[in-house]
Write a structure and sequence with these properties.
Elements (H helix, E strand, L loop, with lengths): L1 H18 L3 H22 L3 H17 L11 H19 L30 H13 L3 H12 L4 H8 L3 H18 L2 H12 L3
Helix pairs in contact: 1-2, 2-3, 2-4, 3-4, 4-7, 6-8, 7-8
Amino acid sequence: MIKDTVDKDYWISAWSRFKDGDKEAFAIFYNQHVDSLYQYGRKLCIDDDTVKDAIQEVFLDLYMRREQNSVGYENLKYYLLLALKRNLIRKLQTQRRFDDTKITDVHHTEPEFSIEYSLIEKEHEEEIRIKLTNALNQLPEKQKEAIYLRFNEALDYRDIALILGITVESVRTQIYRALKTVRQILDSKTFTILLKLFSKKR
């Protein structure tokens, strides 16, 4: 409880300083979220430079609009992921490069889930990794994105719904169907391992 209070006080203080224009506080939040944004952006767009440009614009906009922006540090990750997705779609449409090889609303992308394979028994690691990857790759694209945002980014259903442009109930359905499909593909032992690995990301 003490640690949680200290952490909360730290982030409240950092956020307050950021809102006042403190660039060091801004750097704290930049460093906290930039890797997640890059990983998510590359799932939406294969052009590395475009993703990096979009991320910089999202953070610049966050800083420039800090005083009038009502977002808080608690939901900053959701805000940034949604802003990045919108930025990439707008950018590629403007550049007249909007096609399935550039941005897909997450179509035709590989779901690089950050699964902690080190937790798997070493002698079975590669075999299980292949099974898990193959199973996840068989999911429809919306289900992949919902699973990614839920378990890799630890977003709640409401935030995922806003990013995907669907209802909370639809998000729950997508995740339920995804896990059901994966359960049918994998043997019982491997599916249990997947659930344990996912639970560590939440």
